[in-house]
Amino acid sequence: MEQKTQSLPAKKNIALVAHDGKKAALKLWCDKHKNTLSKHTLYGTGTTGHLIQKSTGLDVVQLLSGPMGGDQQLGAKIAEHEIHVLIFFWDPLASQPHDPDVKALLRLAAVWNIPVACNEVSADMLLSSPLMENELERTLPDYEKYLATRQISL
After folding, report:
1. Is 50 labeled as ligand-binding?
2. What is the pLDDT of residue 134?
3. 3-state secondary structure of 137
4. Which positions in this protein are listed as binding substrate (predicted)?
5. Which residues participate in catalysis according to the annotation?
């Protein structure tokens, strides 16, 4: 598939997700970076979004719980270019009943070429980048051109 260029805006929409064993770590991380995060629009899956908003005072657009469809809601928002950064503190040592949803979410982040951090150190580096508060060019699949060139036979 051909590629096109699109900008990520200076004010980014950031998705915040954490497995149960990592929710406390994400809450502390958000509290530590509250000033920077407050400059962006935050989205969170169910319990995680509620926990972050309640403990930090940050506004978080709260979706469904991950296993109840929240991961898929975020995936749709990534595919529709509404999410620009994914911070996902996942627990590599715990089995997850909704693991296929998690893998699909990470796959979509890779397909649509958005920055992803899966632990505190990578999230620190991502958030401290000067690109975080500037417009950033990215390449992504040119899906519209792909559709326009396909022959549909009935």
Report:
1. no
2. 96
3. strand
4. 19, 23, 45-48, 65-66, 98
5. 71
Q: What is the DSSP string of 32-75?
A: HTHHHHTTSEEEE-HHHHHHHHHHH---EEE---GGGTHHHHHH
- The C-alpha atoms of residue 110 and residue 2 are separated, in whole angstroms, by 16
**Structure confidence by residue, pLDDT tens digits, 109-139:** 999 999 999 999 999 999 999 999 999 999 9
**DSSP symbol at 98:** T
To the nearest 10°, report the CA torsion of 90, 22, 63, 80. Answer: -30
Residue in 132, 123, 125 with CA at minimum distance from that of residue 8: 132
- Between CA 136 and CA 66 the distance in angstroms is 28
21 is in an annotated binding site: no
CA distance 121 to 23: 15
- The number of beta carbons lying within 10 Å of the beta carbon of residue 13 is 19
CATH 1.10.1740.10 fits 3-149, yes or no: no
**Domain layout of the chain by residue ranges:** 3-149
Known binding residue 38? Answer is: no
Residue type, 83: I
- Distance, in Å, from the CA atom of 108 to the CA atom of 22, rounded to the nearest integer, reads 22
Note the pTM of the prediction, 2 decimals: 0.91
* 36 known ligand binder: no
